[in-house]
Design goal:
This protein has about 675 residues and is an alpha/beta fold. Among the domains are: about 110 residues, Alpha Horseshoe (Serine Threonine Protein Phosphatase 5, Tetratricopeptide repeat); about 140 residues, Rossmann fold, CATH 3.40.50; about 170 residues, Rossmann fold, CATH 3.40.50. The chain has 27 helices and 12 strands. The strands form 2 sheets. Strands 3-2-1-4-5-6-7 form a 7-stranded parallel beta sheet, with helices on one face. A 5-stranded parallel beta sheet has the order 10-9-8-11-12.
Length: about 675
Amino acid sequence: MNRKQRRALNARGQVDARSMARNRLLEAAVCAHQAGRLDEAEQLYRRVLLGDPTNAGCYHHLGLIAHQRSDHLDAVELIGKAIALRTTYAEAYGNLSIVLAAAGDIRAAVGAARKAVALQPDNPHAFAALGSLLHKQGRVDDALEAYRTAVRINPRRAETHFLIGELLRNAGNVKASVEAYRKAIQFDGRLDGAHLSLGEAYSALGLHDEALAAFAIALEINPNDSEALFAEAYLKRQVCEWPAPMPNIPDPESAGTKPVPPFSVVATGGDLPSQISWARKWSRDLETACETRFKPKVSCDRSTIRIGYLSGDFHEHATAYLACELFEKHDRSRFEVYGYSIGPDDGSPMRRRLEAAFDRFVDLRDKSHRDAAHCIHEDELDILIDLKGYTRGARTQILAYRPAPIQINYLGYPGTMGADYIDYIIADDTVIPAEHEAFYRETVLRLQGSYQPNSFRPVDEGEQTRRMHGLPEVGFVFCCFNNTYKITEDVFMRWMRVLTRVEGSVVWLFDGGDRARENLRKMAAACGVAPDRLVFAPKMPFSAHLARHAVADLFLDTLPYNAHTTASDALWAGVPVLTCPGETFASRVAASLNHAVGLPELVVASLDAYEECAVFLAQNPDQLAAYKQRLADHRSTAPLFDIERYVRGLEEVFVGVVMAYRRAQA
């Protein structure tokens, strides 16, 4: 071997030694990374790059470390370097899509995910990840196609079936979602999210026993799952299975705590600090999923103010009956009024009436969140009013794109949305006293009287008799047509004591299904009250429901979630409402209505006073008759039912916020 050959051999040996040393460093870096020692892993990856600056894998893993530290922009840059060095790096494209989504750029995330599936057309995980991103955009059909491709590649992947279930349930196809969740559980019985969502689907279908069983399995797998805890507590309240207290779970901001639908917190009796904490957590997640924010697009040259109402309830629904005249009676010389529907068209007369009530009515059901927001943005609104909040069927993410310069939480949701993209909440002095404002992210706009609009309600004509409704011919009839989840054990016990003290009386309740009826009757018997003194009212057409109030004597409210529309329905039908307000918006609505209708005497300070007042009115028919006469005399003049006055007051509020916005922009 000559000298030249020996030098070449030595050089190869040195290269091999350096390569082996880098490989050992890389192995150590990966081990440290997998063990969660991020600082050590980062140092080792960077040492590898000193000797091998074109190592795409190191840049990729450094990007993942940045992502784990929530440095998403650095993560995008580092993973981008990896892809520039290796343009076919499918895994890097997949992780880039995750990082971009975390950074709020869903559109770019979808592009990266599409590149990943193009490079790995046989990877079910990549297609499922693409579907999840498309679902976040509200592109239901495209997301479902991606999920089904993932299933064709691997029919036994539980996570994909679970994602299909989530998409179907969110799209309103609850029955189909059940089958998808069952398949997910078939392939992975420990997938707690599938059990939780299966329970939610069963609950929506009224299959309460099956729902509670599914929640129990989810909590057996993960006892600290905040979402499952709230879901179980809410369902127990729906079927009156007590005790069903507010779940005892970590602070919403604790690491690893899952976001919980804010309405679950309101419905299970969460206090004001809990409500704003959970709402802020939920709203931030929605905002993160938006890849852009629209810039205000308002014409200051218009002589009118352009307002839009966003709702999923533009059909036969309580919100529609409350607000239909509001939409119709806006002063068209000062306002242009747009309606944006995200709910079903039920073909009802109410739907046709609402379509005619707006200057422009737009059906957004089939548009993605972003496309719906873009449509609203192009209409150059001054104000967008959300009538759904976080209730079922809401699409709050549309508002997270900020399609209008002023966005208002109104009527549909009794609490704060906790969102930076919701500027105001419509209220009154009763539902949000000044001392409660700190628990609302929104600026509070107060109306005189009550915050709630009340349109004319048609009532079926014809005689109403107790026999028609299964009620005794003689005796006092207390009623409460609230949903069963609002009935708490404390309130029910008060009712039973009232029945015990008022001979021959009954309580007439909304029929919440077999399990709720059975539980309430068992509880009545345990209190020494004959179960047949509970009479259950089936669901009826709205005008017939109003008419049957004629055979009731007194409406008993619930706490901590009051009657809302059910209370104003009773007052409209001439039945006084007895209420005890709490500390939250949801617990103060009936008090607001009573003050606005001229019956402040029926707002009492405690449950003890509530019980005594119920007994007193049952035993003093002249006093009750006086309250009923006051309702009859004031129905056309009380602020609660003066829709013309109400609309003018609301319009002045709208003018005020628009003028303030324009001054701030000048």
